Amino acid sequence: MVLHRVKSKLFGLIIGVLLLILFNFLSIILGYTDITIQTAIDAFTNFNGSNEHIIIQDVRLPRALIATAVGASLGVAGALLQALTRNPLASPDILGFNAGASFSIVVALMLFSVSSLQATTWIAFFGATIAGLLVYFLGSIGRDGMTPIKMTLAGAAIAALFGSLTQGLLVLDETALDQVLFWMSGSVQGRKLEILLAVLPYLVIGLIIAISISNKINILTMGEDVARGLGQRTLFVKLITGIAVILLAGGSVAIAGPIGFIGIVVPHVVKSFAGNDYRWIIPYCGIVGGIFLLMADIGARYVLMPEEVPVGIMTALVGTPFFIYIARKGGKLA
């Protein structure tokens, strides 16, 4: 069911925000350590230093906020990439952005012992940029120029290349394996609030850019010739969109590692009820992306309790069959 009226879409956004708040609260109270609703409220209104209150403030709250920020960023990045490439299967992980950012961070951690949060963030942006440029170059070679299938193949090739290089580095230095292996699987567990605060300005800038160019993206999706005929500077729009994707995808990898499939699942779900107007798609993708990752993270706590499954595995369990379904349907959810 597609929401056609503006009031319906605004109401949907309000419902989405309320659900996002609800799942943040559920993320705080659910897990191996039983926490009541009253205990969770008291942790913020009447902190007493108890073990439960410390877990809420130092572990559960940062985890919920990080899942919200990363999920929202990856959802919006996926929507931007699908519009930019006109490829319904595009997402930061499919097109190699996550793999490029991950490889650059692993190189920095293993070979140069980089530990600064700011340095790690910029390294992730650099890796995502290199991967994006390589995919764009490879996908544009040939007489037909950039096509969706060429972009998908180029992205898969670059993702495989950086993934292989990363695994090769880990084999060469087994002492660093434990340090990066859990991070490589994509997780919001154990992440400190400080790393979110260090990267958050870049994520906010990326989201602001995405919202501000949403109307231009609507025009660009009509086709490059049509966009130029309407006076749009298509190269500038593509460049700004690419910068937003790099900020969102690179920042997310810097915080939580390479979490896949959010960027492909969320935009299709959003389009099924919000339509094809990117002025609505982008904010909806932010909200639904945050909800999706929070749900996946809550589920990851119960699959092998008392152990926890990295949330990247949970998103893959949902995203892989979804990707196959979308591919068989020719890029449409229904």
**CATH topology category name:** ABC transporter involved in vitamin B12 uptake, BtuC
Look at the structure and give the CATH class.
Answer: Mainly Alpha
The coarse silhouette is globular
In CATH, the homologous superfamily goes by the name: ABC transporter involved in vitamin B12 uptake, BtuC
Low-confidence stretches are none
Transmembrane segments: 12-32, 64-83, 95-114, 120-139, 151-172, 192-214, 235-266, 278-296, 308-327
Protein name: Iron ABC transporter
Family: Belongs to the binding-protein-dependent transport system permease family. FecCD subfamily.
Keywords: Cell membrane, Membrane, Transmembrane, Transmembrane helix, Transport
Describe this structure in words.
Belongs to the binding-protein-dependent transport system permease family. FecCD subfamily. This is Iron ABC transporter. One of its GO terms (cellular component) is plasma membrane. One of its GO terms (molecular function) is transmembrane transporter activity. Its main location: membrane. This protein is mainly α and 334 residues long. The chain has a single domain, classed as Orthogonal Bundle (ABC transporter involved in vitamin B12 uptake, BtuC). It has 14 helices and no strands. Helix 2 (37-45) packs across helix 3 (51-85), helix 5 packs across helix 6 and helix 13 packs across helix 14 (311-328). It is globular.
Give the topology.
Layout: H1 6-29, H2 37-45, H3 51-85, H4 97-111, H5 117-140, H6 148-172, H7 177-184, H8 193-212, H9 214-220, H10 224-229, H11 234-256, H12 262-274, H13 278-300, H14 311-328
GO molecular function, one term: transmembrane transporter activity
Transmembrane segments: 12-32, 64-83, 95-114, 120-139, 151-172, 192-214, 235-266, 278-296, 308-327
Organism: Ureibacillus manganicus DSM 26584
